[in-house]
Amino acid sequence: MLFTGKVVMVIDDSYTIRHQVKLLLSKYDIIVIEAYDKKSMLNHLHYKGRLVDLILMDLGLKETTGTSLMRFLQNTENYKHIPIIVLTGDATKNTVLEVISAYKLEHYAIKPIDPKNLSNKVLTVLEKAHFSEHPGTNDDVSKRIKAHKTNVSNALSKEADDLIDMTENYKADKFSIGAKKEKTTKNKKDSSKYHIHPENLGH
Amino acid sequence: MENHIRQFMNDMGLDSFDDIGFLYQDYINECDVMINAIDANIETTSASELEKQIHNLKGVSANLYVQPVHQIAESLDSYLKDHLHMTITDLEIQSLWTQLRSSYNKATDEIIIFFAKHSVSITH
Lengths: 203, 124
Prior knowledge:
The structure holds two protein chains of two kinds. By secondary structure, chain A is α/β, with parallel strands linked by helices. Chain A is built from six helices and seven strands; from the N terminus they run βαβαβββαβαβαα. In chain A, strand 6, helix 4 and strand 7 form a beta-alpha-beta unit. Chain B is mainly α. Chain B starts with a helix and ends in a 7-residue tail after the last helix. Classes of the chains: A alpha/beta, B mainly alpha.
């Protein structure tokens, strides 16, 4: 897999959010290192002898601001090339523009975390970095993608065969097939200013 | 909370109740500490300090789709930002704080029940 073994550092005060990011990226065999301030960041910027591939940086840290950490990284020769995705709840236009232009960021992710959106951004950055480091590996990647497609195709063929068997058995009335679809409702955001009545809560 | 948790699992692309359950355990552990700290110091905490803590509670609740808690935390956060000069004795702040604690307790009970149905033990 293209992302296997890639190392992402997540810097956030909340261990729940760090855990969430770790779970989210584990699907792609990405190693996630956690930090919560400058000291823990410096202690873990190297993983098994090499620099992390990407940093997810929360701007609203308690002890040190995310912007001061970014300034430090970008002013340090060894660290200035590590790509950063900023993660923050402050979505005001001025803040976004200020941070993006000041730190030449390519990606900015708004909290609360949208898992799919964040995954896409992380994978895009890692993929871009991978191909810029390994310009000659496109052929390898193409071969691996072809092999993956074949595997998927084989798995789907088997599934199709199983379905055909099930259908034949159903026709012969050997067993009944039941299906139940579960509806999930999209959560609606309540925009009332200050007053929340208990009966309006989304329990 | 069941629908919220299922939506969360779907969006995270994960179907392991164990993995997601442990994440919600972290959520409960972290929020318990925040809420107990606020309760312990509520008489002496300034509105601006309380706002920072509520902001954190709001954020982590939103991330894990604990919508009922997020909604009230957002209201309280917004009120505090507009009234940083107020003290905690302000009736509106007290009312919202009471609602928040109640909503949090209810949400966590529902989280615990949901995961218990899937053989994942979560404690409060």
